[in-house]
């Protein structure tokens, strides 16, 4: 399970940390598992005990392991931040995880807008509609750059989670929305993609203003499917599509 590390490379302790974190991400090291002793792990990885000791200290600081004197080093139960970091790593190393993340978003966010339609005060929905219309005007005027578009997109989805009236959902969504931050901005750099996303936000808000819970859920599902397709194209082509028009954009 443990791989040797090229001893002539710098930052050996960092490489130890990276390998152990990857094993945690892959589920090969689970919460409660005891790591091998320093001497044994140093031999397995072909590094010094000092590098292993430094790696353990760094991982303890990150909340990834517990160092119990006289007992050993154990994999910790992950906090929300650790889970977020591990999910980010999964997204980076496996394209399938991007699809799985969007499966989760489709489940959570379609239910989110149902709750907003049923529970949120109309003035909150109207405030959201005003913000979306302002963003739409910026898009029409060519003033919606990818960074601003990404920020407005995150704010839109976060506002919906808050207005759902479910505090746990808002907490979860706050973590999920950060996982695809860079990919979201890259996809929004595709000509027409930002305007298309805002147009889809307008449709969602329109359904919410009508208190149409199922219509809002369908609009959200279609929006997420569209965003997913754009992000997957970015991943699959290594960003080569940047600067090319969104296939879904009307000419």
TrEMBL record:
Coiled coil: none annotated. Residues 10-78 form the HTH gntR-type domain. SUPFAM superfamilies: GntR ligand-binding domain-like, Winged helix' DNA-binding domain. GO terms for molecular function: DNA binding; DNA-binding transcription factor activity. Keywords: DNA-binding, Transcription, Transcription regulation. InterPro entries: GntR_C, TF_FadR/GntR_C, Tscrpt_reg_HTH_GntR, WH-like_DNA-bd_sf, WH_DNA-bd_sf. This is Transcription regulator HTH, GntR. It comes from Kyrpidia spormannii.
